Amino acid sequence: MRAPDTMLPLIAEGLGFAAGGQAILSDVNLTIAAGRPSMIIGPNGAGKSVLLRLLHGLLAPTQGRVAHAGPDAARRQSMVFQRPVLLRRSVMANALYPLRLAGVPSAEREPRARAALEMVGLADLADRPARRLSGGEQQRLALARAAALNPELLFLDEPCASLDPAATRAVEQIVATLAARGTKIVMTTHDLAQAKRLAGEVLFLHRGRLLEQTPADQFFFAPTTAEADAFLRGDLLW
Ligand SMILES: Nc1ncnc2c1ncn2[C@@H]1O[C@H](COP(=O)(O)OP(=O)(O)OP(=O)(O)O)[C@@H](O)[C@H]1O
């Protein structure tokens, strides 16, 4: 039988991470399927970033495992961080770099990089040094760099954490565009309103445990756990 031409669903079984003798994440079981964005929310220190890194493969689990439906999972996924690290080169050079690393034929690189810069509204700044961009523009460039690779699965770790409302809105529009194109987005956020705007489903973490994986329309109106209910009311701080 041929392997499916997709890495989804991604499945975590008994996933855990401990460091310094302390459990940070325990016994997480979940399935990430194709579809609208999966938003990971929860109080500070709940383990959202650690979960994202485990799912992406940046961190090795100390318990359990992450499995994918098909081969080449590393090539089919990408991640954007809260503070993107950009090359000290032009915007275009930053967009081209991952395409070269991925072995994309040279004739295809420039059109793909340009299309990605257009999608995030940075085509006019292609020759500008990337480090001179504003914070919001830098985050859009990081998204363009990831999008140019056409990942099937894109992890976003608090991409709007240090952005103002206008820059946040621009990033959300890019996320919605990518999701509409079929890229599966898995994203952490502190911003409940943002989670409501973007989520197809919510993964609610509390103290290193996944308490809910619930469709968004249900989660925000009728969460199934008391902790999620308290969190939505602003009563659960840790
Ligand atoms: N590699 C690591 N080694 C040891 N401890 C870690 C490691 N990564 C994270 N931690 C700890 O694990 C806990 C969860 O961290 P994580 O960054 O995942 O939380 P979070 O839910 O994303 O929090 P925040 O909302 O504040 O960003 C924290 O107490 C953090 O200090």
From TrEMBL:
The keyword ATP-binding applies. Keywords: ATP-binding, Nucleotide-binding. One of its GO terms (molecular function) is ATP binding. Residues 10-232 form the ABC transporter domain. It comes from the Bacteria. The keyword S-adenosyl-L-methionine does not apply. Coiled coil: none annotated. InterPro entries: AAA+_ATPase, ABC_transporter-like_ATP-bd, ABC_transporter-like_CS, ABC_transpr_LolD-like, P-loop_NTPase. This is ATP-binding cassette domain-containing protein. It comes from Roseomonas nitratireducens.
